[in-house]
Amino acid sequence: MPEVPISPAAVIELLTAEHILEPQEPLTPESDLFSMGLDSMAMMQLLLQIEERFRLTINPAEMTRERFATASALAGFLGEKRRLAA
Amino acid sequence: MSILPATTVDFFLAGLEAFMRRSGQGTHWGVTVLRLEGKPDAQTLTQGWEEIHAQHPMLGARLKRQWLGWRWVWETRGPIKAPAICWHPAQALPPDEAVIHERLLGRSSVGALTSPLWMEVFPWGADGGHVILLTWRHALLDGTGVNLLLEKLATGACGAGPPVPAMPRRESMARVYKRAKPLTDRLHEMTSKGCLSAWMKGMPMGGGPEYRLIELSAEESAKATARLRTLCGDFMQMPFYAAVAARALRLLHEQRGWKSPEIHLHLPIQLRGRSRELIFGNHMGAMPLFLEAGALGSLDLAVAHVLEKYRESMREGRQQASEALTTLAAHLPLGAFIPVVRWTNMGQICSLFHSHTGSFLPGRAEFAGAAVQNICTIPSVCAPPGLGIFVSDFAGQMTVTLAWREGCVTPAEITAMERQIRTDLTGIADP
Predict the structure, then answer these.
(1) Is pLDDT above 80 for B342?
(2) In chain B, what are the domains?
(3) Residue A81 resides in a domain
(4) Is there a contact between B263 and B351 (Cβ–Cβ < 8 Å)?
(5) Is A40's CB within 8 Å of B235's CB?
(6) Preferred mutation among A15, A19, A21, A40 to probe B, highest tally of B CBs within 10 A
(7) Mean pLDDT of B153-169
(8) Across residues A43-48, what is the average pLDDT?
(9) Nearest chain A CA: its distance from B178 CA (Å)
(10) Do residues B356 and B237 lie in contact, with contact meaning Cβ atoms separated by under 8 Å?
(11) Which of A48, B50, B143, B415 has fewest C-beta within 10 Å?
């Protein structure tokens, strides 16, 4: 199965399509995900979805505030992780 | 008279309280202790206290079954009058354990508490220290609700009051049953393996509520936070604290020579989309985790194991299954709920009560104008399971509350668990 491309738009699509976040206003690549309700429960859902959709396993110790602050930052982190895994 | 929706956890806690009353364990109370460096402003406290009572008719609500639809709802009769805040005379020492024991039994120095929420101020010592005890009935308020309540009372400005929550949508019982089935199968599997708590058949149930506070220093708390981040990153606090709690129970079982292949944690999980203005009523759902006692040998292994089980529970939709199972159970009479759980679970309810309620008053250093030293919460727990391990923090300072029923755990066992908890949290071996 071909790899799903990683981009801020793909991260936003994952967050909304899987109901991980249900924001009142549209998510942008720079929206603050924590103020949109990204709590620990949502974070675990997000981890599972990242594994399923992007085929990347994230160690919880890698989950820092900076990496998960915005869709753009998260896409950058996941893209780098995929590049290193290749 | 108005009707407000009840969650399945409201039913669970009311069922637990009915069980406690019938087994001579009193009512389910919690006490939140605020240690202040100065005198709180009486006007700010009174204003916040009265506004909270005026805005939240839930404080006078009772859980009842609605004939139409046979579901549980909160019935309210409008706002209740706020009981006066009790200012005690100054004394040499802060209120001792006997005072907190009395509140955990739902009593004050003059008799039974007549309100689900009770506030007392104790001035003490020569330096102007004050302790506030907030006693609350757990059936109406949970750990998250206490945090929200303190945030309101801290400034005395309580805002516009709560919105009216929507009634949950109805579902066919066949669909609910289907969602609950994988969890019931898992519970049966666990029961057949034998899963113990701090209580076993033949042990007393009616002992009084006991507690011990493990207050980490600022330095110890910083070490614990660093350890948490190394193992779980910036977000996954729950697996870290759950691993510490489960390991403490495993130690207790080992010391007693008990064999419990699994440890069943019933973890509170924040409900999504609930308004922060809804202070009363319960904010949590439940996530059942079934841990293998053999995988809890060290903290690192235990955290990895809890994380794996957490993932498994999320993948299998166990929170939704737990919600569905409680929805089915809510058709039982309130007093029959816990007896049925125990009947299907070899006398147990779960292995341990555990929660991590997060930070009190995030970003604040004062409460009603007085600098805060520390805040912690002490809930009473019933037997079974006979033991609860709860973690909270204020301004980065961690407190672990060990709560148990007299006769279920000995002081020596509590001391052994305290040692291991301190070592697990800070990484410093106890001398």
Answers:
(1) yes
(2) 2-155 (3.30.559.10), 174-357+381-426 (3.30.559.30)
(3) yes
(4) yes
(5) yes
(6) A40
(7) 83
(8) 87
(9) 22
(10) yes
(11) B415
Under 8 Å between Cβ of B17 and B25: no
Q: If contacts are CB pairs under 8 Å, which of residues 247-266 in chain B contact chain A?
A: none
What are B178-198's pLDDT values in tens digits? Answer: 999 989 988 888 888 888 999
Domain that holds residue A33: 8-85
**b/e B118-129 (16+ beta carbons within 10 angstroms → b):** bbbbbbbeeeeb
| Interface contact flag, B233 A47, Cβ < 8 Å | no
B236 to chain A nearest CA, in Å? 6
ipTM of the complex: 0.82
Residue of A nearest to B229 (CA): A61
Q: Within an 8 Å CB–CB cutoff, is residue B307 touching chain A?
A: yes
Is there a domain that residue A44 lies in? yes
Task: Record the pTM.
Answer: 0.93
Of B134, B115, B114, nearest in space to B45 by CA? B134
For the record, the structure tokens of B422 come out as 């301190």
Instruction: Tell me the C-alpha distance between B116 and B106, whole Å.
Output: 9
Cα angle, residue A61 at apex, residues A57 and A65 outer, rounded to 5°: 100
CATH of the domain at A14: 1.10.1200.10
DSSP string of B304-338, one letter each residue: HHHHHHHHHHHHTTHHHHHHHHHHHHTTS-HHHHH
Whether B169 contacts chain A with CB within 8 A: no
Alpha-carbon separation of residue B117 from A65, B31, B328 (angstroms):
37, 10, 31
Question: How many structural domains compose chain A?
Answer: 1
Q: Could you tell me if residue A3 is inside a domain?
A: no
Give the span between the Cα atoms of B268 and B287, in whole angstroms.
6
Q: Identify the band that residue B159 occupies on the pLDDT scale cut at 50, 70 and 90.
A: confident
- In this structure, is residue A66 part of a structural domain? yes
